[in-house]
Structure prediction request, 722 residues.
Amino acid sequence: MNNNNTGKKFILTFAGDTSLGDYYLQKYKNKEPWHRLNVDPYSFFKEIELLVNDSDHLILNLETVLENNPISPLKDKEYLNWDKPSRTINVLKQLGVSAVTLANNHTMDFGPEIMLKTKQQLLDAGIKCFGAGSALKEAPEPLEINISGEQSTKTVYVLSGMRASKRYREDYVYFADHESPGVNPLDLNSMTEQITSLRKNNPESIIIIFPHWQGIDYKWVSPKIKDTARGLIDAGANYIFAHGTHMINPIEKYKSGFIAYSIGNFVFNSPGRYKKLGAPPYSFIIHLELSEQYPEWKVKECLYPIFSDNKESNFTPRPVNENEAIEIELLLENKIKENALIKIGRFKDKRGFYFSSAFNDPSYDGNIKSDSSTKNRTTSNSTSLQNLDKESNQYEKKTFSTKTLIAQEFAKHGFQSEFIGKFLVTYFSNERVVFFETESSLTSLVGWRIIKNKVLAKKFLSSAGVSVAKGKYFNKKDKQQALNFIYNYPLCVIKPSDGRKGKGITVGVSNEEEFDYAWKTAITHSEKGILVEEQFTGGTEARYLVVDGKCVAVLKRIPPMVFGNGIDTIEMLIEKKNNQKLKNPNLKNKLIKIDHHRSSMIKTQGFKITDIPPNGTRIIIDWKAGLSTGADSYDYTDEIHSGFKKIAEKAAVSVPGLDIAGIDILAHDHTLEPTDENYIVIEVNTRPGIGGHHYPVYGKPRNVVKDIVKYVIKKMKEKGAI
Prediction:
């Protein structure tokens, strides 16, 4: 009899390379992270804790040994890694780690005795170890996890081994043999025999391979590695979750198996070389959700991307924001054969953005649902980005002028205007209104003064119940006090209290060297003082336009990219893209330009600028989405959660007399309901630009000038001027 009763659910979490970094942080004298390591080592995990804290089993690649400042017999090996034992074990236990693999290129850095000592310390602490051992008989032994449901059980085997160069086999003697300790070698024939044996003894078991690829740091895996991974699936494995590259790699559904060619880092406290080598600064944490649906068990994989570049994040990995999730989606689509690519969906739940194929798999019956299920899937950008090359708006080639647009709109209502220098003057029967761009003579001068003072503006916003960044104001003479203050937060933003148009602002400040530069930059653009604020991480920015207390339009930016047509080179595609921008009145002076960094970015996607990408292939030009450097604008108005529009309206009226205002909001997800913790209002602008609303590259153009003119006419009627 078929009983579809749903029983318990379990989460097996797999994360990549892990080390607190005693060796790296001490060696590189990284002051602030070194201080954190000694005072609060768990702080490195705070931002990604939510991705692992509900795991039933948390399995990591521990790429270090547990020893106090050991001496290595390997004189010519770079990057010898070690961590203090008690501190590391305490952090692992606090994190809830249940098992680690030692099959990697650091656990034998100081010889077999220290490797075995490391393993014993972990076992004594209740943390299981696999992937290395006292001899070849012990090293390949799998991690066995027995999961007991309400009506049945499921066994999960996790195998690990390292694929490494000849140097590791012969010069460094890293691998175990029949008599000597070492790491389990990833030999396809031996592992195939092991998989076959496990499958024979337990046909319904789940077999996961958790291998380490040595020698391809910050690179995409080679065809040989792909062949090895596919061979393990052919042998009967269900999943491959590899690591060793320090960065994400393609995801593939191969036959009945699932391959993540590399999940990158977890918390690996080395400075890293992402920018230097042009590598995408992202990794994956994988949740394998097992759900008992007697007499079967359903399995769903969820891949949560994290930002892994320690130099950019101040050694605080974090879940990615929406723009970064989009970048990852596009990047991975370009790195795998079309017939092998998983039709992944991009979703969001309480933990953050994740990728999964479950909802698109015809064989999946939909019984397993995450907290947000399909209703919170981030279709807002997923849908639009799939057809960006086909849905871009077309405009006549003309000049954009704010005052001309306003004058033309007033003329439709029978009111005459004239230009006097940079100003627009519109005449009514016994009154006139003067505009400087979108700033009008109806705007409260007191309100304008308050907004220009960022310290006062924050106080008015806070009193209105709007979330703003935590921080403090300092006089120019208070540099030392400001320097001491930055250590209250992982990352800080330094900006002039009276600045405008983003000038003088420095983000990501975490140490004295960065602070000195940021302080000097801010002072050159400030007549008063300096604001030091906590940096809001993991968010995307959108501009909300509020007219007469109502949010009328929302705009966001999309990183610069082009789409292959099978005919043109990337260079030609960029030229065509720029020709389109020349026809956009708001973007004709904001073209895509290629520099060394952008060339490296293209290279990481497997292309040179002279290559012809296949039809439909997306090529990301840059991770950052600045309109002035070639990004595209996207009308976001209809997809924004109404709660965020209300916040923008509340921010605009927090200072009386702000009739036309641009509200910049940084939020984890603008499409979900706002809370006090998931957004901040960055600033309020009294002269917001409107070109992006009238001429977005994608989405619906918004005639916001009409809203402005209707507001002015209403005010004139109230004053009896009409």
The first helix runs from residue 22 to 27. Residues 470-534 form a domain with the Dna Ligase; domain 1 fold (CATH 3.30.1490.20). The two ends are 81 Å apart (CA to CA). The first strand starts at residue 6 and ends at 19.
